[in-house]
Amino acid sequence: MSKVRFTEEFKLEAIKQITEHHRPVAEVSQRLSVSSHSL
User: What InterPro entries does the record tag this protein with (predicted)?
Assistant: First the structure.
């Protein structure tokens, strides 16, 4: 199984959605099509 690499920009935007916009991790992970465990 290959490891998926995310760009720094992608990671920062995901964090911003959770911390600044107070969105639930489950919602952000679904929007970004990644596992909630990845966040």
Answer: Transposase_8, Trp_repressor/repl_initiator
